[in-house]
Write a structure and sequence with these properties.
The protein is an all-beta fold. Helices cover 1% and strands 60% of the residues. The chain has one helix and 17 strands. The strands form two sheets. Strands 1, 2, 3, 4, 5, 6, 7, 8, 9, 13, 14, 15, 16 and 17 form a 14-stranded antiparallel β-sheet that branches. Strands 11-10-12 form a three-stranded mixed β-sheet, with no helix packed on it. It is globular and about 60 Å long. It starts with a strand and ends with a strand.
Length: 278
């Protein structure tokens, strides 16, 4: 991956090239019913141009870009088609203003992404948005967030919304934006063209780790589909780069959660994840 400012326009350009062999069917914990639907070999590149303005409450970021790649399914009907060309155009916006008065603080998180794409001869589009509200008192805070999304057209399984898994340093945002990352669950726990999620985070100064509760539902909006709830503790750290020893920025997450609903009801799962951010 490469990132840097342009000499002429007030834009930051980033280029992400990758070559990945994905095998969710071989996860330590199997997602029931998933099979090899998400097993693919893909490679490609994503180019992003971003504009950022420093507003008084918080930075506003607008970005757009294009993705070109090739993918080959390891199983299922798409495997018979061999290697497929993929291309997409996307736009995204992100604004996270913060305010404070004395020992009190509050903020809003607003983010949205829209994408129009083709895989082989099939066209599809994907929309995803997030709204978060938070309040804080001294070193304690409470935050609630909502995420929703919808996919139209004929998206293949690997571009549908996917519940579970952890972030990857290798994959570009075009791939990651299909995933609702929940480290306590294996990737592909739920799969579908509609996404709905609600999460509450409580960070108390007296507790060693922030607490959270989440309710997630990924599917096709059909009767009988059920949401999945879990609760636990999770610590997220974002560390900046260290140029002196050529270390990139990285994200660290560790935690544990209890799952209330099938297919992993009464499971207590723990995780630790490290993601490099070049």
């Amino acid at each position: 991956a490469w990132r840097g400012p342009t000499a002429v326009l007030p834009l930051d350009l980033s280029l992400h090239l990758f070559d990945a062999r994905e095998r969710p069917s071989r996860q330590p914990e199997e997602a029931p019913g998933l099979g090899r639907a998400l097993d693919v070999d893909r490679r490609g590149g994503e180019l992003v141009a971003a504009w950022e303005r420093r507003t008084r409450p918080g930075p506003l970021r607008l970005a757009g870009g294009a993705y070109l790649g090739r993918v080959e399914a390891a199983a299922g009907p798409n495997a018979l088609a061999g290697t497929l060309d993929e291309r997409s155009l996307f736009a995204e916006a992100d604004w996270r203003p913060r305010w404070s008065r004395g020992v009190l603080s509050w903020g809003v998180d607003l983010a949205a992404r829209g994408e129009s794409a083709e895989t082989g001869d099939l066209g599809w589009d994907r929309l995803r948005g997030e709204l978060g509200l938070g309040v804080g008192y001294r070193d304690s805070s409470l935050r609630a967030s909502w995420t929703a999304g919808r996919i139209g057209g004929d998206a293949p399984a690997w571009h549908l919304f996917q519940l579970g898994g952890v972030s990857s340093s290798l994959l570009p945002e075009t791939v990651e934006s299909a995933r609702l990352l929940v480290p306590a669950l294996p990737l592909g726990t739920q799969l579908g063209d509609e996404l709905s999620a609600f999460r509450v985070d409580l960070d108390l100064d007296a507790l060693p780790l922030p607490l959270f509760w989440g309710r997630y539902e990924v599917g096709s909006g059909l009767p009988g589909e059920r949401a999945l709830e879990l609760a636990g503790a999770e610590l997220r750290l974002r560390l900046g780069p260290v140029p002196l020893v050529r270390l990139p920025a990285l994200d660290l997450t560790l935690g544990a959660a209890y799952v209330f609903d099938d297919p992993f009801a009464d499971d207590l799962n723990a995780w630790i994840g490290l993601t490099w951010r070049p």
